[in-house]
Amino acid sequence: MTEFFQYIVNGFVVGGVYAIVAVGFVTIYNVSRVINLAQGEFLMLGSMLTVSFISMQVPYGVAMLLAILMVTGLGILMQKYVVGVARQATPLSLIILTIGVSILIRGIASQIWGKDSYSLEPLTGNEPLAIGGVSIARQSVWIVLSVLVILIFLWYLMEKTMIGKKIKACSVNPLAARLMGVSPPRMTMLAFAISAATGALAGIVIAPLSVTSYDAGILLGIKGFSAAIFGGLGSPIGATVAGLLLGLMESLGAGLISSGVKDAIAFLVLIAVLLIRPTGLFGERNVGKGGL
């Protein structure tokens, strides 16, 4: 039973990372109907930039903030000069375009940092917490807190602010939003900025539990996308729940069956959901319609 609970805890931690990535996908999709497959590179850049700043003797907290700001700026540039320019393209063309951006970022990162792996020190030390025989890494607490902070922030932004109402208006009817003086491109840019910032944060908080490298975002991005599809591209809450479930399934599958099936579970879930319920657990029925 102790091992079983350990698998549960590990699953929630990993699932928290998938949830953050999935929420990034949902945030952009809700406003622009664009599926940004470069989301994983935001994670990679967040961790790699933090490692670089720390190596320059920049304090940990300042390094994190600088990394998040730089990745947020990249998200804005991506929307303005790539997605925004091609906003009249088909959804499939936009997906291919974001894949191209992902490959470009990864190639540049490999030239800057090489193909070596880098480690990042935990925020609050290496000594794990022991609760009832279950070992919990201190960094895992930061991952869970990051998920909660992001969800609370997005809920408050969408439900309690005028900006949230503008974002919803652009999502429901871009033309009507324009007629009311709301700029859909600006709201899309804001969505890319939020998605990039949350992705960078996810990359930073997960890096101390493993290692990071120029290609660290590939698998995390795919699993986050699987969680977004699983929960529903239109629902941040659904994406969060799906991310946690995906993490649990991976952890239990690796612990109770074989570690070899760990990475395959995300793809199996994605295939099953697309076959049985393409809209996801909490998704809408118009997934894939044209956007901004």
Structure description:
The chain crosses the membrane at residues 7-29, 49-77, 89-109, 129-158, 187-207, 227-248, 260-276. It is a multi-pass membrane protein. Strands 1-2 form a two-stranded antiparallel ribbon. By secondary structure, the chain is mainly α. Helix content is 72%, strand content 2%. The chain starts with a helix and ends in a 16-residue tail after the last helix. The chain has helices at residues 2-32, 39-55, 60-83, 91-113, 138-160, 162-172, 174-179, 184-206, 217-231, 236-256, 262-276, and strands at 129-131, 134-136. It contains 11 helices and 2 strands; from the N terminus they run ααααββααααααα.
List the helices and strands and how they pair.
Layout (H helix, E strand, L loop, with lengths): L1 H31 L6 H17 L4 H24 L7 H23 L15 E3 L2 E3 L1 H23 L1 H11 L1 H6 L4 H23 L10 H15 L4 H21 L5 H15 L16
Antiparallel strand pairs: 1-2
Helix pairs in contact: 1-5, 1-8, 1-9, 1-10, 2-3, 2-4, 2-8, 2-9, 3-8, 5-6, 5-8, 6-8, 9-10, 9-11, 10-11
